[in-house]
Amino acid sequence: MKILVTGGAGYIGSTTAKALEEAGHVPVILDSLLTGPLAFVRDRIFYEGDIADRDLLRRIVDEHPDIDATIHMAARIVVPESVELPYEYYRDNVAKSLELFDQLVQLGKPRVLFSSSASLYAMKDDFEVREDDPLDPTSPYARTKRMMEQVLIDIAAATDLRAIILRYFNPVGSDPDLESGIYAKEPSHVLGQLVMAARGQKKSFTITGTEHPTRDGTGIRDYIHVWDLANAHVRAVERFDQVIEAVGAPSVVINVGRGDGVTVRELVAAFERVFGHEVPVIEAPPRPGDAVGAFANVERSAELLDWRTELSIDEAIASALAWGEKRYEVLGYE
Length: 334
Prior knowledge:
Elements: E1 2-6, H1 11-22, E2 26-31, E3 45-48, H2 54-63, E4 67-72, H3 79-84, H4 86-106, E5 111-117, E6 128-129, H5 140-158, E7 162-168, E8 170-172, H6 190-198, E9 205-208, E10 220-221, E11 223-225, H7 226-238, H8 240-247, E12 251-256, E13 262-263, H9 264-275, E14 281-284, E15 295-296, H10 299-305, H11 313-331
Parallel strand pairs: 1-2, 1-4, 2-3, 4-5, 5-7, 6-15, 7-12, 8-11, 9-14
Antiparallel strand pairs: 10-13
Helix pairs in contact: 1-7, 4-5, 6-11, 9-11
């Protein structure tokens, strides 16, 4: 299969492109390089440009008429930044995606696999969330993801478009061969922050929020190894038509996580265990837009995708630490 991957120069996008290749498929990368580094594209088929550029999308399909599906990952993703820059987030995540989805329908490429987010869910007392649970996105970033889900559901109901919406939980770790990983110089991801503190690039790791209604007061997350997440996409594109047929609807939402909750303090303890040393930690109030968190009920992904995670949090931490040592070689900066 040949798969168009928007945002394929990013952290998850480049890892997914590699997983597609390892499964015998051909990724076609479309990325503006607004954030994703060109180094992550490697020698893949690549188009630099905007997802809302209809002429470019037409050229991609003309040059690759055998594209079977689109994995739409291109998005702005930093929660605090979305609070400061809501216009840019709604423009890039929502308005541009509208153009992409409509043009894909016009070009006869109706299969869309969409990267959504677990940050949409309303808080539950037991923190385990199912796909049909109430939603309460708490940041502009999360609200853009919710809007894009609704756009896909509505367009799928009215046109030939078919959509599998994957609600990611918290990707951590790196590509197993250390060809890609977290690329931001100051990553907002919790594990990237821990790696920086462990390597002395930051004075300390900051736990943001210590009075949440969790077992130790810190936020709770479902941390999934990025390689497991990448392989969930492979399974979803391979089984795309089967999934849509099985649900009997033009679109479906599927949680993608490990299925267990880990607090920030528990993640720090696991990190120190793998790292072999303590990491300096300070505490601070929650950041703007932060959610308490949740973990995935993964029954639907097991049933529809025949997919489950295989890698542990310890393995994710070890790969993130190894990537921290390799980053300069790949990207040219620490």
